[in-house]
Design a protein that fits this description.
Strand 2 and strand 3 form a beta hairpin. Helix content is 47%, strand content 13%. It has 416 residues and is α+β, with helices and mostly antiparallel strands. It has three domains: 120 residues, Orthogonal Bundle (Butyryl-Coa Dehydrogenase, subunit A, domain 1), CATH 1.10.540; 110 residues, Beta Barrel (Butyryl-CoA Dehydrogenase, subunit A, domain 2), CATH 2.40.110.10; 152 residues, Butyryl-CoA Dehydrogenase, subunit A, domain 3 (Up-down Bundle), CATH 1.20.140.10. About 4% of the residues have low confidence.
């Protein structure tokens, strides 16, 4: 099957609708919720929950399901995740901080999709279809386990029908929203046996109100300031045995099923982080082009490079980088929709989008000069918002390392 980069009429319609929503509902209030960090637009969030039924991330990391009695159609177009990526791009074109504060399963839901049994998916994901906003979150990063997620030290010990969790997690996106402001949950990655290495790492669903869990810090951030990022402490936190996602057994040190589920979660979500970056980069480039056009500055596409001005070369490179990132992202999402392994493509998309959009927003501020640096425009905010896409869910450096290993056929031990 060949990849078709032409969006279907359904996705085009959704794209246009979401773009109008982002322009009319998010842009006008973006500055207010950037300035007043940790404040949330409650009426907007309730509307998003009602209209979108679980937020913009409701279908992320999923496969399209065949209707009962339906015969498989070889030529049927699968586009659930591609549609999600296009939606994310348009929402983040409106505002990244507001978009990340939207209710929905988030990374926690993606982890349940990747690791959970059918019964667990039904149990934990059904809550996002209600009328009240609900958030899901994932807690994996620790003070000594950032990019090296295999170094997780949070422990889980089986005691009868419960696991006892002890440890600390940092930089948990939407952790406060999930655990304090809604009936949500956080998926906590902990080790059953540190000596087993990656094989001992398992995901646990810790639900709102679970004793022994505490939000210990709310981060003040450079960008995406409407979205909460927190630290969590687990002190003899008791979780029902059935809340462990997937297989509870640590078979042997050479089998790393639990850890592979961590990576499977990121294979589904990293292209969406790339789409987030592309949305912010598109906003910056659109504003820059519009401002130049209003000032009578023409960008002469199609002329010889030796005749281009420095400004024209910059604009064309911004355009090219953004389009390259978008095509890499769509490819990774298309592969996910079609059940193909996409770990390499997900890392490539995120690495390209994170670095490209960080450069694009900085260059846009530079070209706009003092006006770009001021708060008269949202451009300086977009520059701040963009940087997180080069950091969370695996830094740009880690994505390049993963890409090199896959292309060269090297193991983790061979290429560090």
């Amino acid at each position: 099957m060949m990849i078709d980069f032409e969006l279907s009429p359904r996705i085009k319609g959704t794209k246009n609708m979401i773009h109008m929503f982002a322009e009319s509902a998010l842009r006008p209030i973006a500055r207010e919720y950037d300035t007043n960090e940790h404040k949330k637009p409650q009426d907007l969030l309730k509307m998003v929950q009602k209209v979108m039924g679980g937020g913009i991330s409701g279908a992320f990391g999923t496969e399209e399901k065949k209707k009962e009695g339906e015969e498989p159609k070889e030529k049927k177009r699968r586009e659930t995740n591609l549609a999600g990526g296009v939606t994310v791009e348009e929402i983040f074109w409106g505002d990244a901080g507001l978009a990340l504060s939207f209710p929905g399963p988030g990374l926690g839901g993606a982890a349940v999709q990747a690791s959970g049994t059918p019964e667990q998916k039904e149990k934990f994901l059904a809550r996002f279809a209600g009328e009240e906003p609900v958030w899901g979150a994932m807690a994996i990063t620790e003070a000594e386990a950032g990019s090296d997620t295999a170094n997780i030290r949070t422990t889980a010990v089986l005691d009868g029908d419960e696991y006892i969790l002890n440890g600390e997690k940092i930089f948990v996106t939407s952790g406060k929203s999930a655990l304090v402001e809604s009936q949500g949950f956080v998926v906590v990655w902990a080790t059953l046996d540190r000596k087993a290495g990656r094989a001992g790492i398992k995901p646990f669903v810790v639900e709102h109100g679970t004793p022994g869990m505490e939000v210990t810090k709310i981060e003040d951030k450079l960008g995406i300031r409407c979205s909460d990022t927190v630290s969590l402490a687990f002190m003899d936190c008791r979780v029902p045995k059935e809340n462990l996602l997937g297989n509870p057994e640590v078979v042997d040190k050479s089998k790393t099923e639990g850890f592979k589920k961590v990576m499977a979660t990121f294979d589904a979500t990293r292209p969406l982080v790339a789409a987030m970056a592309i949305g912010v980069g598109s906003a910056a480039l659109d504003l820059l082009k519009k401002t130049l056009a209003e000032e009578g500055v023409e960008i002469r596409y199609g002329i010889s490079p030796c005749r281009m001005t420095a400004l024209e070369r910059d604009i064309m490179k911004m355009d090219a980088d953004l389009k390259a990132a978008r095509l890499l992202t769509w490819r990774a999402l298309w592969m996910l929709d079609n059940g193909q392994r996409n770990d390499l493509q997900s890392s490539m998309a995120k690495a390209k989008a994170g670095s490209a959009v960080t450069w694009i927003t900085q260059k846009a501020v530079e070209i706009m000069g003092p006006l770009g640096y001021s708060q008269d425009l949202l451009l300086e905010k977009w520059m701040r918002d963009s940087k997180i896409n080069d950091i969370f869910e695996g830094t740009g450096q880690i994505q390049l390392l993963v890409t090199a290993r896959r292309l060269l056929g090297f193991s983790r031990e061979q290429l560090k």
